[in-house]
Amino acid sequence: ARDLVDRLAQHGTDAPARGRLTQALADIPGARARRALVALARDADRAVALTAAYLLRRRAARRC
Question: Contact 25/33 with Cβ under 8 angstroms?
Fold first, then answer.
């Protein structure tokens, strides 16, 4: 998942595509998806970053 995020960033993928990727990562378990969400939480687009941060908080809450 992290490699996919890196490739999208390198190819200038637009914010809506990164937003859809972020939403898709919500349903993918595991550390790789979490690391990809961490990277997306630092996205230049505020909506992408906020969505990723929200999903990370939701994942953390499920572990409790």
Answer: yes
